[in-house]
Amino acid sequence: MTTPSRLRIAGGTVYDPANGVDGAVRDVCIEGERIVAELPAGVPRLDVRGMVVMPGGVDIHAHVAGSSVNHARRLLPEEHAADPAPAPQLADGPPARSGTGGTVPSTFATGYRYAGLGYTTAMEAAVAPLAARHAHAELDDTPIIDSGFYVLLGNDDYLLRQIAAGETARARDYAGWLLGVTRAYAIKIVNPGGVAAWKGGDGNRTRNVYGLDDAVGSSAVTPRKILETLAGAANALALPHPVHIHCNNLGQPGNFATTLESMRALAGQRAHFTHLQFHSYGGERGKGWRSAAKDVIEYVNGHAELSVDVGQVMFGSATTVTADGPVEHLLYTSSGRKWVNVDIELETGCGIVPYAYRERAAVAALQWAVGLELFLLAKDPWRVVLSTDHPNGGTFLSYPELIRLLMDRAYRDERLKAVNQKLLAGSTLLDGLAREYTLGEIAIVTRAGPARLLGLSRKGHLGPGADADVTVYAPDTDRAKMFTAPRYVIKGGTIVVEEGQLRRASAGARLAVRPDYDVAVTKDVKRFFDAYASVAFENYGAEQ
Amino acid sequence: MSAAARTVEHVTCLGCGCACDDITVVVQRGRVTEAQQACALGTAWFGDGQVPDAVRIRGRADTLERALAEAAQLLADAKGPLVYLAGDISCEVQRDAVAIADRLKGAIDSLASTAAAGVLAAQRRGRAGATLGELRQRADLVVFWGVDPGARYPRYNARYAVEPVGLAVPAGRQSRRVIAVDVGDARGPADADGRVAIPPDAELDAIGAMRAMVQGRAVPPDGPFGTAIALVQEMTKARYVAVVADAEPGPTLPPDPDRAEALIALAQALNGPTRCALSTLRGGGNRSGADAVLTWQTGFPFAVDFGRGYPTYRPHAGAAERLAAGEVDAALVIGAPATLPDSVAGRLAGVATIAIGPRASAAGWKPVVAVDTGVAGIHEGGTAFRMDDVPLPLRPAFDGADVRSAAATVRALRERLEGAA
After folding, report:
1. Among B270, B302, B319, residue at a domain's last position
2. Chain A: nearest CA to B272, how far in angstroms?
3. Domain shared by B147 and B242, yes or no
């Protein structure tokens, strides 16, 4: 069928947790690009009796576009050669584009594959301000999904100077200016202070920070101060999404203490802690690892102002790509794989190592278990979002398998037996966590929850006024199968997936904020640019 | 045409890969009369801003409409179409050009293939790099490996790696030590603080010995690589080392995949004891943009073939090799013909060609269809990438009304080809 301007999605079993609907048989009505309460009888119908209807998926954290992602693509010709993506046969509209897949697909393939999975919104999680223009160009070439990005700020030299000088208000105004000039959606912190140290600021020979009160150049600048300043800025600027934090010590045994201390440092303030799995390890460096998932998730459970995404590790190929330069250097030296590092002037870093998580590897098995524990011990699904930190823990194409692990205890237990047990001793997973996610809870952790945490009031639900982003699944006891191939996906009122086939590829919208700030800050920023930057202040950002 | 002078500031120059964005361009009576801050290369690149405005089919003046129809027909009928991304076009034009190649199931290549040795080495190993501004902030030891940027990248030293003040380099040039590595006749800068001479036939072994030293393996200091060993010892003691090498083909030191890989491996290893970034010099005309655009749209940076209905990578069968093998029967060259390497330009006379870009009508290989356009960054806007992949906006000194836009022309051709099912 072509997409009518009015459509009744009739007779499906609807999961719309934001509106309190948990598996009720009802119609969903679409007029134009929005959901409406009712339509007259006689409008075109899509008969979905017996099928499951949910809002379109919302990915709160993925690496899909921009300079770091493109460095990763360039590094992986062998993956692209092995996973060709011919242009889909579309019913109408401009011709589709071909591409390649692998862990870091080309832009068009990224858009088509997200839509094919029933996801209609995705947020790129780490963009250097200097390369904002590049990220927007790639997102423009990423069809169907609505998208935006988080701009990197936790190691920014201008910001660190303001913190050193105690200029909290100016730091806030700088963040406001930077979000607007780069057309970003939220503030991202990656290893606060650690990337600056890696780049050699003030001759720092440790090349990272390890504790919240380590000095970053000036003794007045610490990871704690960076977290406080930027969390405060995000909340003062009334951003729809709070500060998005990748903690210090990613991937290190014993790092759960740093994670908890970071959470406590922001007590009472809204904050989102990302890929929590990579930050929930007990043990000690050189003395082994263990799970500390329970300690971390219990703290999250007790603090309603915090939200997290899990960053689940899935067995198979991955590509680690992050602004956390020192962690990638460590992975390079320990894995011997190929490695990209790009230090980005005055702002941040970028490191990339292609990787694989193997079931028989002790650390990978622990990481897998820790992620599942976080999910299964979480009390409030609205604050614990499904992610794999694509493509770091696995690609977004592994979400259906992850959903199966969460929904099907027997399957999970069987998989658990097959993994290396060496480091699983303290894991609650071995105690036989019985929880099975319901479809309603899956709808929360994959759409309603992330949409709410992002402040996207028209996403993640099916109430009147919502964007007409709807996914229809054919139920299957094999939940991986069910979530891999939705029968219908409707994006902004356009039927993009029909009978399981991608049939249309509308353009996605850009999600960006433009907060108010005191413009006096730009004079000082321009002075800093004139003194140190290699690009003109006037050419910075992505506004024109 | 207004007689009043028009002045545009913060203009990005694409005369070389430095992409200096501090140029002030003055236009008077329809001509560029000044390009302030620009080096000699930049001044030549801006020229007087005059470009021809011809549309030709088989050498005769014709309408744009008919030229585009003819071009579309030639390409649609071709069995082995090739799209080539030449210089002086924006990323926006490059994006449409890749779409055309995808539509045609043709091959596409770009000026990036001239730097293939370095790209392929980085695909095998990765790389340790930095944006140019980070070298400015950090590098206290700058090692020029067989290259003096003065000739082909004139403001590289002044704007990035050597002269300017940086956060950790408070006195600029005085805070840095500059070493020239002379590989045979390929010499580093004359005003370096130190020099190391390496015979070309010993270069790879010397780099290998340096890397072994960095990795803690003993290399005799009085052996054949003594001076190189002394250099690497100095490097490990620096706070942040920049190694600068030319990725473009030059008269003295042709690109070599083994050297490119050896330098990458050395730079990576130096990040054990210290910090190090390898800066590979790239030419102008937004060739780095072509590399980036092809990578994000196809997964591969150059020499892509859509013949199977999806992108495949043919790094050893790029435009020059395909033309030489007679596999191309129609070529669409987008960009300035003058920027083409001889290996491509010299082989275009034998095939049906369409040229769209600055001074297309002057192409020596006599295009079947030629459409002159403005120059990205002089007559039209958009985005271009610096040699270190930093994207910059283009600020045309002319407002564009008088000069045919490459972006609009290529978009029109794309729409024509996409309309033909």
Report:
1. B270
2. 9
3. yes
Calpha distance B105→B149 (Å, rounded): 39
Total beta-carbon pairs less than 8 A apart between chain A and chain B: 201
Per residue in A157-208, pLDDT (tens digit) is 999 999 999 999 999 999 999 999 999 999 999 999 999 999 985 455 679 9
For B240, phi then psi, to 5°, come to -150, 115
Domain that holds residue B310: 51-114+285-419
A536/B296 CB distance under 8 A: no
B56 and B99: one domain?
yes
At position A297, the amino acid (one-letter code) is: I
Nearest CA in chain A to B96: A141
Provide the domain count of chain B.
Answer: 2
Q: How far is A36 from chain B (nearest CA, A)?
A: 35
Tell me which of A534, A537, A540, A544 to substitute to probe the interface with B (most B C-beta atoms closer than 10 Å).
Answer: A534
Q: Does A87 touch chain B (CB under 8 A)?
A: yes
Q: Tell me if chain B has a CB within 8 Å of the CB of A97.
A: yes
Question: pTM of the entire structure?
Answer: 0.98
Chain A 347-376, CB below 8 Å of chain B: which residues?
A: 352-353
Same domain, B139 and B260: yes
- Burial class from Cβ neighbours inside 10 Å (0-12, 13-18, 19+) for residue A425 reads exposed
B276, B240 in Cβ contact below 8 A? Answer: yes
Residue B355 pairs with which residues in a beta bridge?
Answer: B333, B370
Instruction: Give how far B92 is from chain A: nearest CA, Å.
Output: 9
**Position B41 in a domain:** no
Residues of chain B with pLDDT under 70: 1-3, 400-401, 420-421
Q: How far is B12 from chain A (nearest CA, A)?
A: 9
Q: What DSSP letter does each residue of B1-43 carry, written as one string? A: ---S-EEEEEEPP-SSTT----EEEEEETTEEEEEET--HHHH
User: Quick one: B196 and B312 in the same domain?
Assistant: no
Residue B43 forms part of a structural domain = no
Residues A381-386: what's their mean pLDDT? 98
Distance CA B36, CA A125 (A): 39
Q: B143 with B110, same domain?
A: no
pLDDT band at A93 (very low <50, low <70, confident <90, very high): confident
Interface with chain A: mutation pick from B132, B159, B298, highest number of A CBs within 10 Å: B298
Cβ(B269)–Cβ(B130) below 8 Å: no
Interface contact A336, partner B, CB < 8 A: no
What's the rounded Cα separation, in Å, for the pair B96 and A141?
Answer: 11
Q: Which own/partner pairs from B151-154 qualify as long-range (CB within 8 Å, at least 24 positions apart)? A: B152/B16, B152/B41, B152/B246, B152/B248, B152/B250, B152/B281, B152/B283, B153/B16, B153/B17, B153/B18, B153/B281, B154/B16, B154/B18, B154/B39, B154/B40, B154/B41, B154/B42
Q: Give the ranges where A117-222 is alpha helix by DSSP (H).
A: 132-140, 157-164, 168-182, 194-198
The average confidence (pLDDT) of chain A is 96
Structure tokens at B115: 């730097």
